[in-house]
């Protein structure tokens, strides 16, 4: 096609050369076109392909080319043009008193012959140039043809120079819709056929598609248009412009098809070129592909042959709609081209004239699938209607300069192509069902080839570079590859994607978390130590056991308050210590249940004050023991300086300091309930935030300070006489207390969620039980099980024995 424009220029120069040199306006020689001719008042031209595979010399112009093969199906089309013109001539309502004639030429499926035929039609019959000084028959007012888009592009450029309208019945290339470049081109096949193919592909979800086209204007433009349209939806795996006459180029393109992962291949070729491609595909045994045929070869019956069905079964094609032409079959059967002197489309006579076509079924007489043939019929009627409009023009209301009308007896081609005149009408009411695709264009239909009801695929094949990313994952494009090629990466924990082919994962809100499939955010489980929890039940039971134990011991001491064991161990401080231990057990209940503002403040205040009260009692008891037995001057008692009032005051003072710490803490930065969403991904830890780390540290530090002092004093007093010496029990209890709270710190920090609270409760209970058992269980043992030792004599005897 690259040489088409230079050829047109040469032909134009040739016409001018004839005008200048030959007064007879007669060309030196003719190609001897295969033609069909009938004279008329107004002549229509036609260019059809009846023969193909033209054998020509190497463009040396030393010998005439010879036609080889005759296509009986293609022969139906020029016969249809002749039929339509004769039908119009018989119709008195259309162009009355005017006879249409025709001159139909065979282009032998060759571009050079097509251009020569176009020159012959616009110059005049017998290649006689028509001008003011020459007397040839009138040129044609319009040309019906070319069938191929690539040929139509070249011929339209030539005819456009002379404003001769060309009406094509097969050329669907959108390039021909450019009226600036092709002002005289019209067609009865919609250019939207190109746009239907991307819609088919999009409907089936074929995002990874290959394309093959011919290496000419039609194929190159078709590949470009299709690629641009398909890229809005998917990707092009490959786009090959091939020359079927170049075997190496054809084999390379077919190899690309074989190696490509694309399962769907779109082909923009002529029927002749498609035949070569089909043979090569079958030769290389390429199966498993879904072929989509353009309109130029979609109705190729070879697709459904036994030999090709293995490779091309299920091919989807876009083609012109099927039409019905009443009377055409009878006309075709009655035609005898061998005996018609004006019909030399068949120069090689192969019939005797005695044959009866009515008894034989051939493609020529088959009018059940009239597609391109029907468009030929419509093209003739379109031109006839334009001429009819010119003939009916009212004087003073014409479409030309000065509102003039054309003289129908000498109408010019440029007058026919006026927009008002050349319109397209469908004279037969017919509708076509567009399978799968919603389209308002009734001139396009889809065809699918199958063989004898054989079902190869029960569902549409899949053609994608990468399968769709399911919800819960995102697309990650592969570097250097088309956008349709990607990897599917699962969303991270806490992120979701809820639809197919998501390009990103979305973070769930703070109170939500991704489900297992990562396609939905679900509310996080709120976790806190509740009374319904197994751990909560266990700790609550243990707490109540501790409370009961303290109350029981307190009741025993009250009941036996007048016995020597109770009196000898400072009964008032013992009673206060047991009450404070009861409070220590009860404060652990504040740590169980859903945190609230009041429970968060109460739990730490109750814990701090009750434990300081307990340690203060123990510290004062220890001081009393030391002061009673460490007097330096015999006969002098220091207890008058540290009597019951001073002891109560000391306990109150130590406890007041802790209360003061709590008050400052609560007024500056008190504890508060907090939903911790960061500690655990899938859970919300409902906890009490301590508010001020300094306040909490002071509270624990003060308890620890008192405990250390009590332990040191008790350790000093451990060797005093056994009668009044409870220092060794206090030492043991303080040792337990300190060990519990030292191990509490790392356990508290490392425990997750509700276990943090459980560890704190455990420390409270363990230290409380340690104090209760270490200090009071030995005394209860004597009171209840060894009452003989609970006498003043027994106690004094033990003291005497020890002092000896």
UniProtKB/TrEMBL annotation:
<protein>
    <recommendedName>
        <fullName>G-protein coupled receptors family 3 profile domain-containing protein</fullName>
    </recommendedName>
</protein>
<feature type="transmembrane region" description="Helical">
    <location>
        <begin position="729"/>
        <end position="749"/>
    </location>
</feature>
<dbReference type="InterPro" id="IPR017979">
    <property type="entry name" value="GPCR_3_CS"/>
</dbReference>
<keyword id="KW-0675">Receptor</keyword>
<dbReference type="InterPro" id="IPR011500">
    <property type="entry name" value="GPCR_3_9-Cys_dom"/>
</dbReference>
<keyword id="KW-0297">G-protein coupled receptor</keyword>
<dbReference type="InterPro" id="IPR000337">
    <property type="entry name" value="GPCR_3"/>
</dbReference>
<dbReference type="Pfam" id="PF01094">
    <property type="entry name" value="ANF_receptor"/>
</dbReference>
<keyword id="KW-0325">Glycoprotein</keyword>
<comment type="similarity">
    <text>Belongs to the G-protein coupled receptor 3 family.</text>
</comment>
<feature type="domain" description="G-protein coupled receptors family 3 profile">
    <location>
        <begin position="535"/>
        <end position="799"/>
    </location>
</feature>
<keyword id="KW-1133">Transmembrane helix</keyword>
<feature type="transmembrane region" description="Helical">
    <location>
        <begin position="650"/>
        <end position="670"/>
    </location>
</feature>
<feature type="transmembrane region" description="Helical">
    <location>
        <begin position="572"/>
        <end position="593"/>
    </location>
</feature>
<keyword id="KW-0472">Membrane</keyword>
<dbReference type="GO" id="GO:0005886">
    <property type="term" value="C:plasma membrane"/>
</dbReference>
<feature type="transmembrane region" description="Helical">
    <location>
        <begin position="690"/>
        <end position="717"/>
    </location>
</feature>
<dbReference type="InterPro" id="IPR001828">
    <property type="entry name" value="ANF_lig-bd_rcpt"/>
</dbReference>
<feature type="transmembrane region" description="Helical">
    <location>
        <begin position="605"/>
        <end position="629"/>
    </location>
</feature>
<dbReference type="InterPro" id="IPR038550">
    <property type="entry name" value="GPCR_3_9-Cys_sf"/>
</dbReference>
<dbReference type="InterPro" id="IPR017978">
    <property type="entry name" value="GPCR_3_C"/>
</dbReference>
<feature type="transmembrane region" description="Helical">
    <location>
        <begin position="534"/>
        <end position="560"/>
    </location>
</feature>
<keyword id="KW-0732">Signal</keyword>
<feature type="transmembrane region" description="Helical">
    <location>
        <begin position="761"/>
        <end position="784"/>
    </location>
</feature>
<keyword id="KW-0807">Transducer</keyword>
<keyword id="KW-0812">Transmembrane</keyword>
<dbReference type="GO" id="GO:0004930">
    <property type="term" value="F:G protein-coupled receptor activity"/>
</dbReference>
<dbReference type="InterPro" id="IPR028082">
    <property type="entry name" value="Peripla_BP_I"/>
</dbReference>
<dbReference type="Pfam" id="PF07562">
    <property type="entry name" value="NCD3G"/>
</dbReference>
<dbReference type="Pfam" id="PF00003">
    <property type="entry name" value="7tm_3"/>
</dbReference>
<keyword id="KW-1003">Cell membrane</keyword>
<dbReference type="InterPro" id="IPR004073">
    <property type="entry name" value="GPCR_3_vmron_rcpt_2"/>
</dbReference>
<feature type="signal peptide">
    <location>
        <begin position="1"/>
        <end position="20"/>
    </location>
</feature>
<dbReference type="InterPro" id="IPR000068">
    <property type="entry name" value="GPCR_3_Ca_sens_rcpt-rel"/>
</dbReference>
């Amino acid at each position: 096609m690259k040489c088409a424009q230079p050829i047109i220029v040469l032909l134009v120069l040739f016409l001018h050369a004839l005008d200048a040199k030959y007064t007879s306006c007669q060309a030196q020689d003719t190609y001897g076109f295969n033609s069909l001719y009938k004279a008329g008042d107004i002549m229509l031209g036609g260019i059809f392909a009846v023969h193909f595979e033209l054998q020509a010399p190497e463009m040396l112009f030393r010998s005439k080319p010879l036609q080889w093969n005759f296509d009986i199906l293609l022969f139906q089309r020029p016969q249809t043009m002749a039929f339509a013109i004769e039908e119009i001539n018989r119709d008195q309502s259309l162009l009355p008193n005017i006879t249409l004639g025709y001159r139909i030429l065979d282009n032998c499926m060759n571009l050079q012959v097509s251009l020569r035929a176009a020159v012959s039609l616009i110059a005049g019959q017998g290649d006689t140039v028509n001008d003011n000084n020459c007397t040839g028959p009138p040129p044609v007012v319009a040309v019906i043809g070319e069938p191929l888009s690539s040929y139509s592009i070249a011929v339209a450029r030539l005819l456009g120079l002379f404003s001769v309208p060309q009406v094509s019945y097969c050329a669907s290339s959108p390039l021909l819709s450019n009226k600036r470049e092709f002002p005289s081109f019209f067609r009865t096949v919609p250019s939207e056929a190109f746009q239907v193919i991307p819609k088919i592909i999009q409907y089936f979800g074929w995002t990874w598609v290959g394309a093959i086209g011919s290496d000419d204007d039609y194929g190159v433009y078709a590949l470009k248009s299709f690629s641009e349209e398909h890229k809005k939806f998917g990707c092009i795996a490959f786009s090959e412009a091939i020359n079927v006459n170049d075997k190496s180029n054809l084999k390379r393109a077919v190899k690309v098809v074989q190696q490509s992962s694309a399962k769907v291949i779109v082909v923009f070729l002529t029927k002749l070129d498609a035949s070569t491609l089909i043979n090569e595909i079958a030769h290389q045994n390429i199966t498993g592909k879904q072929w989509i045929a353009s309109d130029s070869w979609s109705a190729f019956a070879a697709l459904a042959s036994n030999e090709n069905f293995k490779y091309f079964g299920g091919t989807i094609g876009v083609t012109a709609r099927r039409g019905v032409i009443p009377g055409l079959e009878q006309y075709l059967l009655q035609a005898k081209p061998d005996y018609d002197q004006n019909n030399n489309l068949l120069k090689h006579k192969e019939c005797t004239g005695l044959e009866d076509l009515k008894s034989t079924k051939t493609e020529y007489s088959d009018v059940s699938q009239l597609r391109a043939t029907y468009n030929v019929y419509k093209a003739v009627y379109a031109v006839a209607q334009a001429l009819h409009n010119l003939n009916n023009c009212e004087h003073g209301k014409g479409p030309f300069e000065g509102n003039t009308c054309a003289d129908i007896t000498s109408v010019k081609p440029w007058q026919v192509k006026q927009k008002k005149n050349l319109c397209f009408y469908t004279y037969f009411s017919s509708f076509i069902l567009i399978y799968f695709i919603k389209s308002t264009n009734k001139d396009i239909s889809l065809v699918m080839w199958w063989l004898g009801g054989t079902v190869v695929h029960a569902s549409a094949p899949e053609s994608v570079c990468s399968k769709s990313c399911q919800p819960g994952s995102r697309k990650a494009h592969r570097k250097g590859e088309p956008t349709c090629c990607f990897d599917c990466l699962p969303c991270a924990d806490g992120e979701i994607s809820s639809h197919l082919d998501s390009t990103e994962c979305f973070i769930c809100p703070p109170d939500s978390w991704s489900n297992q499939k990562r396609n939905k955010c679900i509310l996080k489980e709120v976790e806190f130590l509740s009374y319904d929890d197994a751990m909560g039940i266990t700790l609550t039971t243990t707490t109540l056991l501790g409370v009961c134990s303290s109350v029981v011991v307190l009741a025993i001491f009250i009941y036996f308050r007048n016995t020597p064991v109770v009196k000898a161990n400072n009964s008032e401080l013992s009673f206060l210590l047991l009450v404070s231990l009861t409070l220590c057990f009860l404060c652990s209940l504040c740590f169980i249940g859903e945190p609230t503002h009041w429970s968060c403040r109460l739990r730490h205040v109750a814990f701090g004050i009750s434990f300081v009260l307990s340690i203060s009692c123990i510290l004062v008891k220890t001081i009393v023991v030391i002061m009673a037995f460490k007097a330096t001057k015999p006969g002098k008692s220091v207890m008058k300086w540290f009597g019951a009032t001073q002891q109560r005051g000391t306990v109150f003072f130590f406890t007041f300091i802790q209360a003061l710490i709590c008050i400052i803490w609560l007024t500056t930065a008190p504890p508060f309930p907090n939903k911790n969403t960061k500690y655990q991904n899938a859970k919300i830890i409902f906890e009490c935030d301590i508010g001020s780390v300094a306040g909490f540290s002071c509270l624990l530090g003060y308890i620890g300070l008192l405990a250390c002092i009590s332990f040191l004093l008790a350790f000093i007093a451990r060797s005093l006489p056994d009668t009044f010496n409870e220092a060794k029990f206090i030492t043991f209890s303080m040792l337990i207390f300190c060990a519990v709270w030292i191990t509490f710190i790392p356990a508290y920090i490392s425990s997750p969620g509700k276990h943090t609270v459980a560890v704190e409760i455990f420390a409270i209970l363990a230290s409380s039980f340690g104090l209760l058992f270490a200090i009071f269980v030995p005394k209860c043992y004597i009171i209840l099980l060894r009452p003989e030792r609970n006498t003043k004599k027994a106690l004094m005897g033990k003291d005497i024995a020890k002092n000896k």
